Amino acid sequence: MGTDGSTAVETLSRVYRLLNYIERELSNIYGRYGLNRGEADVLGALARSPQSALLPTQLSNTLMCSSGAMTNRLDRLEESGFIKRTHDRQDRRAVRIALTAAGKTVIERAIAERDSADAKLVPGLKKTERRELVALLRKMLAAYEAAEAAQAPPPAKLGRPLSTRVKRGELNI
After folding, report:
1. Alpha-carbon distance 32 to 37, whole Å?
2. 142-171: pLDDT as tens digits
3. Which residue ranges of the chain lie beneath pLDDT 50?
4. Staple partner for 70: which of 6, 60, 97, 144, CB 3.0–4.6 Å?
5. Residues 6 or more apart from 64 whose CB is under 8 A from it?
């Protein structure tokens, strides 16, 4: 067993340790604005969206979290006055989520502070080294995503349309 950093365990243990430092720093930054990281992610997604309001499912898909986690985040953000839920005009069953003025202000400030904290979030690396690291992480992520896509079950075959099967007598309706 080597200690030259070439094993998966050595690589991943460092990634986990770095993640702990990063999570702590981000928690401190977002905490100053009354947010946790998940809530900041929601506000950030809304702020970046070209649409003025999004469906909760769009947000949970974008942020890769469960619908239950999204509901909890939205509840807290609404209580804080950072988002507003409104019923969709075309489908009253659907709810759209929009930033309030207070939500827009708080996420802009939190993001500005986060962006100015480069030295704390990625210490010890020059700009060129950060680019190299990003390229390596992209390569690793692409390999994970390709492997996952290869294992995904194929979409179900629907066969011929129901109307065709009825006409041909394949179904007794």
Report:
1. 11
2. 998 898 888 877 665 555 554 554 455 544
3. 162, 165-166, 170-173
4. 60
5. none
Angle between helices 8-31 and 37-48 (to 10 degrees): 80
Longest dimension (CA), the chain: 72
Instruction: Label residue 89 exposed, middle or buried (CB < 10 Å: 0-12, 13-18, 19+).
Output: exposed
pTM, two decimals, is 0.75
Decide if 132 contacts 140 (C-beta within 8 A): no
Instruction: Name the pairing type of β-strands 83-87 and 95-99.
Output: antiparallel
| pLDDT for residue 112 | 96
Residue (of 102, 99, 121) closest to 49 by Cα position: 99
Of residues 63, 67, 57, the one with CA closest to residue 39: 63
